Amino acid sequence: MQVTNQTGDLHEVPTEGGKTNYLLPFILITSLFFLWGMAHNLDSILIPHLKKACELNNRQSTLIDTSVFFAYFIMAIPAGMLIKRFGYKNSIITGLLVFAAGAFLFVPAANSRTYELFLFALFVIGCGLTILETSANPYAAILGPAESSSKRLNLAASFNGLAAMVAPIVGSLFILSGKNHTPAQMAAMPEAEKATYLLGEAAAVKMPYIILGSVLVLVAIIFYFMHLPSMKPQHTEAEIKPGFFSVLKFRHLSWAVVAQFFYVGAQVCITSFFIRIAQQGAHLDEKTAGYYLGVYGFLFMAGRFIGTFFLKFVKDYVLLSIYCGASIILCLLAIYGTGIVVIYALGGIGFFMSIMFPTIFSLGLVGLKSNTETGSSWLVMSIVGGAILPYGMGTLIDMKHDDIQSGYIIPLLCFVIILSFGLYGHKVKNVNQIVNG
Q1: Looking at residue 4, what DSSP letter applies?
Q2: What gap in Å lies between CA 317 and CA 427, rounded to an integer?
Q3: Phi and psi dihedrals of 258, rounded to 5?
Q4: CA atoms of 147 and 191, how far apart (whole Å)
Q5: Based on CB atoms within 10 Å of each CB, which residue in 64, 126, 287, 428 is the most buried?
Q6: Taking the mean position of all CA atoms in its chain, how far away is CA 135?
C-alpha cells in the first residue's frame, strides 16, 4: 500500500507481505537514463555537423559541450534544492519539460543558422538534464538495498549506454549529410549556393529534435500520472548533517567529485572528436565515421551490462581500477597508433569507460545518508569537466595544426587520476569530526 504526500511523491509504505514493489519505479527511472543518453550522444554528432554548418574551428565547436555541461555546474545546487522542496517526482517532471523546451529551441536556431541560439538551446537542455540526473542517479541508487546500489545504478546506466549506440546511428541517418567541402571549394562556391548549402545543413537537426522534445513531453505526462515511492533516506537525531561545503569533508566524496570531473571530461573529449579522428586517422567518410561511433556506443553499452554482471563477483572499486588501467593502455594506442587501429582503440576505451560514471557516483555517496542530496549535487556539479576539458582539447588540436590524435593526451591524464580514486581515493574515512556547516 502507498500513501501520497503533499508534494505528489509517495511515502514508502510496505505492501502486503511487508515488501515495497520497486520494479515499476525502477523501470520508469531507467527510461530517463536512456533519454539523457540520447541528448549527450547526439552532441557527438552536432560537433562536426555544426562545425560545418556554422563554419567553426575546433575550439569553437567544443562550445557545444561547454554549453551543456556548464549548465550542470550552474543548476546542480538549485536542482538539489528543488528535490528537497518538491520531491523526486516533481523534480523529474520539471527536468523533462525544461529538456523538451531546449529541444524545441533547435527549430528557430536552425531556421536562422545562429550558432549562439544553438548554444542557448543546448544550455537549456543541459539545465533539464541536470535536474534529471540530480534526481534519478540517487533515486536509482537508494531504490532498494544499500549493498546492491552499485549494481542497481550500473544496470540503470546500461540504458544510457544503449543510447550511446542508438544516438550516433540516428544522427548519422538524419543529421549528417555526408557532404564535405574543402575550404578552397567553399571559397569558390557562389554566395547563393553556399547560403543554401549551409542552411540545408543546419535544417537537418530540426526533425530529430522536434521528435525528441515531443517524446519528453509524453514521458513527463506519464510521470505526472504515475505514483513513485518517496525514498528519502532514514536518519537519526544524532546523525551528522554538514552544510553544502562542509560535506566535502567526507574524504571519499571529495575524491569522487574530482574523479567524476575528469571522467566526464575524458568521455566527452573522446566522443566529441571521434568522427574527426575517424576521418583524419582512418580516412573514413563522415557518415561511415558516424556509424563507427554507433559501434563505439554498442561497446559502451556492452561494457555496462557486462560490468554490472562482474560487480556480482568483484568489488566495485577493484573493477573501476582494472577498467582504468585498460583505458590508459588503449588511450596510448589511440595517440600513437595509425589507421583503423585508432578506431579499434577508441572502441575499446568505450567498453572500459562504461562503468566509471555510475561506479564513481555510488562510491561517492557511500555513508552520506541524509546528506545524499547534497553529495549528489556536488557529483552532478563535477560534470562541468565536460565543459572545460573538451575546450582545452580543441585548443590543443588547433595549436597542433588540426592534429586530432595529439589532443587525446588529455583523456589519458584523466584516466590516471580516476585510477588513483579507484586505488585509494574511494576509501571511507572517519567523519565524526564534521560539524554543521
Answers
A1: E
A2: 9
A3: -65, -45
A4: 63
A5: 126
A6: 14
Indicate the DSSP class of residue 248. G
122 to each of 180, 232, 274, 319, how far by Cα in Å?
24, 31, 20, 34
431 vs 307: which has the higher pLDDT: 307
Q: Please tell me the distance from the alpha carbon of residue 77 to that of residue 176, in angstroms, as a whole number.
A: 36
- Position of cell 540526473? 133
What is the reported pLDDT for 182?
A: 67
pLDDT at 433 over 70: no
How many whole angstroms from its chain centre is CA 396?
23
Residues facing residue 4 across a β-bridge: 10
Q: Which amino acid is at 187?
A: A
- For residue 179, what are the CA distances in angstroms to 185, 199, 213, 281, 403? 12, 13, 27, 19, 22
**E runs forming strands in 240-285:** none
pLDDT of the residue at 431:
52
CA Rg, the chain, in Å? 22
Cell of 146: 544499500
Report CA dihedral (160, 166, 167, 168) to the nearest 10 degrees: 120
Q: What is the pLDDT of residue 5?
A: 36
Q: Comparing 4-8, 172-176, 358-362, which segment has the lowest mean pLDDT?
A: 4-8
Give the single-character DSSP code of 384.
G
Give the pairing type, strands 3-4 and 10-11. antiparallel
- What does the CA dihedral 80, 98, 361, 45 come to, rounded to 10 degrees? -160
Rounded CA separation 19/365 (Å): 24
Place of cell 559541450: 65
pLDDT at residue number 100: 97
Quick one: which of 320, 350, 267, 295 has its CA closest to 65?
267
Q: Pick left, alpha or beta for residue 402 (phi over 0 → left; psi -120 to 50 → alpha; otherwise beta).
A: left
User: Given a cut of 80, is residue 435 above it in pLDDT?
Assistant: no
What whole-number distance in Å separates Cα of residue 182 and Cα of residue 218? 42
* Residue 377: closest CA among 45, 13, 72, 30: 72
CA distance 375 to 241: 11
For range 332-358, the mean pLDDT: 91
The predicted pLDDT at position 323 comes to 95
Spatial separation of the C-alpha atoms in residues 155 and 170, rounded to whole Å: 23
